[in-house]
Write a structure and sequence with these properties.
With 323 residues, this protein is of the alpha/beta class. It has three domains: 56 residues, OB fold (Dihydrolipoamide Acetyltransferase, E2P) (Beta Barrel); 166 residues, P-loop containing nucleotide triphosphate hydrolases (Rossmann fold); 63 residues, Ribonucleotide Reductase Protein R1, domain 1 (Orthogonal Bundle). The protein is 29% helix and 25% strand. The strands form three sheets. Strands 10-9-8-11-13-12 form a six-stranded mixed beta sheet, sandwiched between helices. Helix 5 packs across helix 6. The two termini are 27 Å apart. The structure holds guanosine-5'-triphosphate (GTP) and magnesium ion. Guanosine-5'-triphosphate binds next to helix 4. Magnesium ion (MG) binds next to helix 4.
């Protein structure tokens, strides 16, 4: 039977097939294979006693991946594994609230990782009721992540909700990612018009959340699939060079216009980047953000081990399907 993973609690996978849910474990043949995550489609079998076992992970159309540094102090990391967070999403709603949580670097990072994973990022600025005018925030995000849709909403006043409804086409999967306390679960509840997910107050002093949601959960509302996730503390990057180049396409194009192909954009003559910075065509802020993300990505590449190759197998399947 084919089913979709709707939540995972330790080694128990809740798999949904039509309207029925099964609590399944991984079959022995899955040992050493990529572990399914919420949103994955799997092949599973149910024995005569009603026990369900997952026997195959089906090809993913998208996967959001972050570095897995569990068990390592940062200074001691010699190898870096990748951890799949969610799979088969069409869109990632990057949820950032309009209080202390607003951080343009973090948004750019989520955009790059979402794109690298094969989905479309949409930036959702929540708690619009907390600011007098959302326009400067929306414009700021747009100026950095060109081409990405940015929408300000409030679950309290319902402002902006009509603008996100265009994404709610039946069959679509939308994942909510962002820091704890950003209002992900509140938005799920507001869209559902009832309390599906538990919500709790943030700390007033610094707007930090209390990590209320503790597991990823796939929820179906009128044929649209939403994945609510626990707030991420810090989002590291894997090797996502190509996605950073896509996110900052104009900068990547500019680097190709320098006189020397190995230009370090430092003292070389004929440097297109320096020229663009001088004319103001390229802002210092975007250039630094691009450099930081590329450096971090290159650093991650230097640390990767075979596990990453394993996962790239799924990416290849994805690329083939796209063509
Ligand atoms: N002012 C305002 N507060 C909001 C809004 N949406 C959510 N909140 C509040 O923000 C707090 C955190 O909301 P949650 O929905 O639990 O946040 P979360 O992103 O799910 O947090 P985690 O589950 O910890 O990742 C709660 O006190 C909500 O009432 C909003 O639109 N405006
Ligand atoms: Mg939550």
């Amino acid at each position: 039977m084919e089913g979709r993973i709707i939540n995972v609690q330790r080694d128990i996978f809740c798999v949904k097939n039509k309207d029925k849910e099964y609590m399944a474990r991984l079959a022995g043949k899955m040992r050493g294979e990529e572990v399914p995550v919420v949103g994955d489609y799997v092949e599973f079998v149910v024995d005569d006693y009603g026990s369900a076992g997952i026997v195959e992970l089906l090809p993913r159309k998208s996967v959001f991946v972050r570095p897995d540094r569990r068990g390592h102090g940062d200074g001691y990391v010699k190898t870096m594994k990748e951890q799949s967070v969610i799979a088969n999403y069409d869109y990632v709603f990057i949820i950032t609230s309009l209080n202390h949580n607003f951080n343009i670097n973090r948004i750019a990072r989520y955009v790059a990782i979402t794109t690298a994973g094969g989905g479309i990022p949409v930036v959702i600025l929540t708690k619009a009721d907390l600011v007098e005018d959302v326009t400067p925030f929306v414009e700021k995000v747009k100026s950095i992540t060109r081409g990405v849709d940015v929408i300000a909403v409030s679950s309290y006043t319902k402002e902006g909700l009509s603008q996100i409804k265009k994404y709610f086409v039946p069959g679509t999967t939308i994942a909510f990612l962002g820091s704890s306390g950003a209002g992900k679960s509140t938005l799920v509840n507001t869209l559902a018009n009832r309390e599906i997910m538990h919500v709790s107050q943030i700390r007033e002093s610094d707007s930090k959340g209390r990590h209320t949601t503790t597991h990823r959960q796939l929820i179906e509302l009128d044929g649209v699939y939403f994945i609510d996730t626990p707030g991420m503390r810090e989002l590291g990057m894997c090797d996502v060079k190509e996605a950073v180049d896509n996110t900052f396409e104009d900068i990547a194009d500019l680097t190709g216009c320098c006189k020397f192909s190995d230009c370090r954009h430092d003292t070389e003559p004929g440097c297109a980047i320096k020229q663009a910075l001088l004319t103001g065509e390229l802002s210092e802020e975007r250039w630094h953000m691009y450099c930081n993300l590329q450096n971090e990505s290159a650093w991650a590449k230097g640390l990767k081990n075979e596990k990453m190759i394993e996962i790239s197998k799924y990416r290849k399947v994805l690329n083939k399907r796209k063509r």
